[in-house]
Amino acid sequence: MELFDRLERRELEKAVLVHVDFYHESDREDLEEFYELVDSAGAEVCALLGTKRQRPDPKYFVGKGKAEEIQQAVELHEADVVIVNHALTPAQERNLSELVQCQVLDRVGLILDIFAQRARSHEGKLQVELALLKRMSTRLVKGWTHLDRQGGIGARGPGETQLESDRRLVQGRIKSLETRIEKVRKQRGLGQEARKRTDIPVITIV
Fold first, then answer.
1. Residues with Cβ < 8 Å from 89, sequence gap 6 or more?
2. Nearest to 146 by CA among 48, 71, 40
3. Sheet (strand 14-22) strand order
4. How many CA atoms lie within 13 A of 4 on its CB side?
5. What's the sign of the alpha-carbon dihedral 181, 187, 192, 195?
6. What is the tens place of the pLDDT at every residue in 58-104?
7. Which of 114, 124, 160, 201 could lock onto 119 through a cystine, CB 3.0 to 4.6 A?
């Protein structure tokens, strides 16, 4: 079963949202747009936790006190996922996930998740799965067994042997997808050339 197929069947998840109001305008993300993205992803919002910072915390992105507050909100609402309205490093995502004991998704992961649900063409689905797997490959670490969730973006093996196996599987799948995408592109190019030779009109609906 492909990753994309599992994503399509995922049930509605309870989400705790996290938004940081940075002092520098260039570091800020729009809160209203964040709500729209979460709604598009089909998550049920349980709580929104906000904070102000000058710069991201290197360990949790938010401060330790706010991270513990997120943990309490997850326990209170029995949330399935924490969604952060900013881009996290793999280490920040991992540290926060280990603390709250559920899946943590940052803004980039949320957008990819929406693409996965919306993609309809064969090439579109391949492109989304490729992006998800490349992102997953940078976040495969030992001991992430608590991140299993239906249709989640990455189940983690319990030990080093399993981790290495997971990485090989992911890299193999990435290479396979890249080959298939290149084949689809070539086929599309041949189809376009054939239409040009037969003077078939091309219409685009936006």
1. none
2. 71
3. 44-53, 14-22, 81-84, 103-105
4. 20
5. negative
6. 999 999 999 999 999 999 999 999 999 988 988 999 999 999 999 99
7. 124
